[in-house]
């Protein structure tokens, strides 16, 4: 998107504001498709948790995407966006059996990641197809909070528990139609990913009626100029060759599945915020904006980097600023960052704001959440209204203490 377009949107819809570029989402989807174009059967399931706006889901449905969901609410969003149940996979962690059964009744693909639930579900619903999420014990991902395939992870069934897993499947007579893994986000070492894939292939050989193998995702995107990223083209060549060989050995053409979230939407997102105050202290120049970690928590939660530009003064002389929010706690988006000279009223643009940004926003400090806009075919479309104070108190039940009897 062009700077002038972002500035116009900030005026039209006010700040703070999330903007998503549909063209970037489309190009990322097609890039992944092309990288695996030689796979006979490919399925891309968008990870809803990254950005769950229904209009974004409908955009991805147009491209042919399925959905990866982790809650019944995400499943319901997918159904509202007109996805057929069979194009939705549900991979919960630590949820109740009641929720899993409720989702299964909708016709959605169930993916189970622990032995206890597998045994309970198999005993009650042996004819319902189930995918199994394994933990390959392979460390991948850029941060411990987003590395989910290591030995201490709460996710997946350990490959060392395979004898127990197979005994449950045999005793219940349940139908296993898929095997799944997810090692973590921000994967750079393709060889590590391929090593984990070999574990998935070995596991799959224990099951005779598989329809698909799900390799998760976690592809890293660039966060700044000249940043490194996952080479999905190289991965496509190597994994396609190995997957084709596996299908031949297995004796059946399986579907290769991925569940990208950040890869598809991260770079499409822009977070626009106005500078309320420029504050000089004895050692720092703070640029205080009309937002905080209630709107964008990733830098504070796990140290994520978001490139920040002053789009009101792009050609200005660069100076050092610490960009901070208005929350009554330390909420520093960037410390001592080189940014074109900032004055009060300028609009700052945070890049890579499409994934895990609005979806993790809150009403902390009783602040309202911002609006969302989709830039589609040369026009900004409002896809979520800005919250109001009425939205914050809508579900509160206010007691009338004056009518409460007082003990004498």
Automatic annotation (TrEMBL):
Residue ranges occupied by any Orn/DAP/Arg decarboxylase 2 C-terminal domain in the UniProt entry: 18-354
Residues annotated as domain Orn/DAP/Arg decarboxylase 2 N-terminal: 23-266
Top EC class for this record: lyase
Positions bound to pyridoxal 5'-phosphate: 218, 356
Catalytic residue positions: 328
Reactions this protein catalyses: meso-2,6-diaminopimelate + H(+) = L-lysine + CO2
Chain positions recorded as substrate binding sites: 298, 302, 329, 356
Claim: Lyase is one of the keywords in the record: yes
GO molecular function: diaminopimelate decarboxylase activity; pyridoxal phosphate binding
Alphabetized InterPro entries for the sequence: Ala_racemase/Decarboxylase_C, DAP_deCOOHase_LysA, De-COase2_C, De-COase2_N, De-COase2_pyr-phos_BS, Orn/DAP/Arg_de-COase, PLP-binding_barrel
UniProt pathway annotation: Amino-acid biosynthesis; L-lysine biosynthesis via DAP pathway; L-lysine from DL-2,6-diaminopimelate: step 1/1
EC numbers on record: 4.1.1.20
Protein's UniProt keywords contain Amino-acid biosynthesis: yes
Domain of life of the native organism: Bacteria
Keyword annotations from UniProtKB, A to Z: Amino-acid biosynthesis, Decarboxylase, Lyase, Lysine biosynthesis, Pyridoxal phosphate
CC cofactor: pyridoxal 5'-phosphate
Pfam families cross-referenced by the UniProt entry: Orn_Arg_deC_N, Orn_DAP_Arg_deC
Modified residues (N6-(pyridoxal phosphate)lysine): 49
UniProt-listed GO biological process terms: lysine biosynthetic process via diaminopimelate
Subunit structure: Homodimer.
Stated family: Belongs to the Orn/Lys/Arg decarboxylase class-II family. LysA subfamily.
Main function: Specifically catalyzes the decarboxylation of meso-diaminopimelate (meso-DAP) to L-lysine.
Protein name stated in the entry: Diaminopimelate decarboxylase
Species of origin: Flavobacterium arcticum
Gene: lysA
């Amino acid at each position: 998107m062009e700077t002038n377009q972002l500035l116009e949107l900030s005026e039209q819809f006010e700040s703070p504001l999330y903007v998503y570029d549909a063209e970037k989402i489309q190009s990322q989807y097609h890039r992944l498709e092309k990288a695996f174009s030689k796979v006979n059967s490919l399925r891309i399931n968008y990870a809803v948790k990254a950005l769950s706006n229904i209009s974004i889901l409908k955009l991805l449905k147009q491209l042919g995407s399925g959905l990866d969901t982790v809650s019944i609410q995400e499943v319901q969003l997918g159904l509202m966006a007109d996805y057929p149940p069979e194009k939705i996979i549900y991979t919960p962690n630590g949820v109740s059996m009641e929720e899993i059964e409720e989702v299964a009744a909708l016709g959605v693909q169930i993916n189970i990641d622990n032995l206890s639930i597998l045994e309970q579900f198999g005993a009650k619903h042996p004819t319902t197809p189930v995918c199994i999420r394994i933990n390959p014990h392979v460390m991948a991902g850029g941060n411990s909070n987003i590395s989910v395939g290591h030995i201490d992870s709460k996710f997946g069934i350990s490959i060392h528990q395979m004898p127990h897993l197979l005994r449950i499947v045999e005793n219940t007579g349940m139908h296993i139609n898929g095997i799944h893994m997810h090692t973590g986000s921000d994967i750079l070492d393709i060889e590590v990913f391929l090593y984990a894939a070999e574990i998935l292939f070995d596991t799959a050989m224990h099951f005779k009626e598989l329809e698909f193998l799900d390799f998760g995702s976690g592809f890293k995107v660039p966060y700044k100029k000249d940043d490194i990223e996952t080479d999905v083209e190289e991965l496509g060549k190597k994994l396609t060759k190995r997957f084709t060989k596996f299908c031949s050995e297995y004796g059946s053409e399986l579907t290769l599945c991925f569940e990208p979230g950040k890869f598809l939407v991260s770079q499409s997102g822009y977070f626009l915020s106005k500078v309320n105050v420029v504050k000089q202290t004895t050692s720092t120049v703070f640029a205080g904006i009309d937002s905080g970690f209630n709107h964008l928590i990733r830098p504070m939660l796990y140290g994520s980097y978001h490139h920040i530009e002053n789009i009101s003064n792009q050609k200005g002389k660069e100076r050092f600023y610490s960009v901070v929010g208005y929350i009554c706690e330390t909420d520093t988006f960037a410390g001592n960052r080189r940014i074109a000279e900032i004055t009060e009223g300028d609009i700052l643009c945070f890049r890579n704001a499409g994934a895990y940004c609005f979806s993790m926003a809150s009403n902390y400090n009783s602040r309202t959440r911002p609006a969302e806009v989709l830039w589609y075919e040369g026009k900004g479309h409002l896809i979520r209204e800005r919250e109001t104070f009425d939205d914050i108190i809508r579900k509160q039940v206010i007691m009338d203490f004056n009518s409460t009897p007082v003990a004498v």
